[in-house]
Amino acid sequence: DFGRSSELAFVVEPSDDIAVQEQPLILYCQVEGIQPITITWRKNGVMIVDSENAFMLANGSLYVSRFQRVRGDGSSDEGEYDCMAQNHYGLVVSRKAKIQAATMSDFHIHPQNAVVEEGGVARFQCQIHGLPEPVILWHKNSMPVNTDNERYTLLPKGVLQITGLRAEDSGIFHCVATNIANVKFSREARLTVSGSHSTVYKDPMILVGPENLTLTVHQTAVLECIATGNPRPIVSWSRLDGRPIGVEGIQVLGTGNLMISDLTVQHSGIYVCAANKPGTRVRRTAQGSLVVQAPAEFVQHPQSISRPVGTTAIFTCVAQGEPPPQITWLRNGQILETSDHIKLKNNNSTLSIYGINQADEAIYQCLAENSAGSTQASARLTVLWADGLPSPPQGVRAETVSATTIQVSWEKPLQNTKEIIGYVLHIRKAADPVEMEYQEAVSKSTFQQLVTDLEPSTSYSFYIKAYTSRGASKASEVTVVSTLGEVPAMPSLFIKVINSTTVQATWEPSIKLGQHEGFKLYYRKVHLSQYTGPVLLASNVTAYNITHLDASVVYEVKLLAYNQHGDGNSTVRFVSLRETVERTVLNPPCDCMKDEQNNKTSTTGIIIGIHIGVTCIIFCILFLMFGYRGRLLMCKNVQEQLSTPQIPRSQRSATGLVLNGATRRDRDDRDLNGKQLDMNELERLFPASPSQEQQEKGITSAHSPSAPHDETQISTLPLDEFSIIEEQPDPLPKNPHGSNPAAPAPDHGPANEG
């Protein structure tokens, strides 16, 4: 019972037929369902009124007493017929039956005389059109050709092939075409077999190759291929796509014709006939295409359903065929018109009816049709309506709260409110189709709902339904309101130092900004309150050069996006220009490692000091292990780096980075005495040779006892200029235990390389 409505459905539908002139014709139609049922007929969409020539029988079939292709008034009994059945549940329409008159034309190809040498191949052809397809037989000397002779091959399209010709094959041939409309004879043709079989070599040659054919499933295809040559070539078949032809339903007629019985869609393809010279690779080929069509048939039928008022009904109808069928929907026999609440999707395979009401109750039909045939299936929609359901909610109002929020409020229905278990708010963008609607459930005691996560500057429609355990009320009035506009988000901003007076501000366009008309750029010296700007930039601009800056001060750069709703939040960056090739971006989050590498003021000194300290420790260990005596060339800030704890990058303030040179000098003055004691201890552990050797090595003392403490000079050495000068071996006998700890240590201060 798939594809049938139990209330009303077809048991037998009219089928395509070929009618004979002046003969009666019967078109069958049988319906089952709930009585009373009324049956009517249409031809080419026009109702047929009973007459002497055509009238309906008691069983619902249509009887045409004398079929005529052309009547005296110019009308014709040919056309497309369908049967309609109706009861109080609805109306259904049968598939269309195509009725054609039986005809036969004159022969447009007649057999031709032929003279062929003995052992060769003879081919005769005659061609004629007719409905139904005429059956063509061949006569030789006015007698039917003996089809038991294996050398004689009759093909369905009116071709006669004779292979291995002999003298007795000579004669007069003609063909006879027959169908229900007529019988016709072709002209005669003479076959003459001359000479004896030749032994001269001849290359293989295909006389006639396969034609392009378009057939329907379950029919039979014959692909002709006739070849000549000496020696006689071997004929073989293949598919151009490389797929195997198979063996089921495959037969070879004569010496090389391919016949495929009970065609399927899978037989479609391009077939290649090859004539091969035996024992060699010499070959000739010819090809032809076979297209197999399949009438439309259903893979999934629509099913009858019952749905409460206000819900959604969905019918699915999936059909297949070759070529792919076109699907049409009918409602009670009429073409279904789509609307806001009736939608067709998936190439018309899915019918959705939203917010159904009593008027949607009907029988819905799915018609699938292609060039090979048509079919139909029906299903009924029953709309459930319970007495005592609530009336629609009243006073629906929607108020805009923000760019993404709307508050919807309503009042309870006027009637039948006792059984209400809740409300459902239906939400949809006003520009979207109905199927994009979504719902939010609300308790029965709540008469307002805050709808969030909406899009800015967008119109939305809202309506409410009240629900009971037995069904839903009708929908309330629809209200439409728009969300507020939204300013753009913060853009990403990056600052690049171009030279000592120019920086480049760059930013990335992003969809996260939202709708924006452009950008506004401001900049100022940090110690001033007044900004320069705004510089107005178009929405497609992503960079701007700020010129004529003062390299001695820090600048603040600010960027924001704006639109018709106002200015968005700004992104701020700070930048300092100190030298032409130096830059420091001071605002968090910062890449502190990058800042240290680029800053050759106080930060560079700290890093160089760390490296010098690590180097000194390594050399001290080496001297202790191997017993070498040497003097370590030190700079004054070595012990500062060894004794001063490292400050985490995250705790280094922007001010500390800028003013580090000044603060460091103050710290040096405070710690001078302590550092001098540390240096004396190192020199005690590593005794030094006379100061004359220092002078020979080019070392000068940066601090002497007579020099005042406030005149101490501090220098920062780049790593590539720092070096260790090893002292010459002591000519005096060495203490076997190393340096004498009791020897007085000369007072040497930190030394700088000359």
TrEMBL record:
Protein name from the UniProt record: Immunoglobulin superfamily DCC subclass member 3
Annotated family: Belongs to the immunoglobulin superfamily. DCC family.
A Pfam family hit: I-set
Gene: Igdcc3
Gene Ontology cellular-component terms listed: membrane
Biased composition (Polar residues): 643-654, 689-704
Any GO BP: cell-cell adhesion
PANTHER family: IMMUNOGLOBULIN SUPERFAMILY DCC SUBCLASS MEMBER 3 (PTHR44170:SF20), PROTEIN SIDEKICK (PTHR44170)
Topology versus the membrane: Single-pass membrane protein
Keywords, sorted A to Z: Disulfide bond, Glycoprotein, Immunoglobulin domain, Membrane, Repeat, Signal, Transmembrane, Transmembrane helix
Domain Fibronectin type-III stretches: 392-486, 487-583
Subcellular location: Membrane
Region feature Disordered, mapped onto this chain: 643-754
Ig-like domain segment(s): 8-100, 105-192, 204-287, 295-382
Membrane-crossing segments per the record: 606-626
Transmembrane helix as UniProt keyword: yes
Biased composition (Basic and acidic residues): 663-673
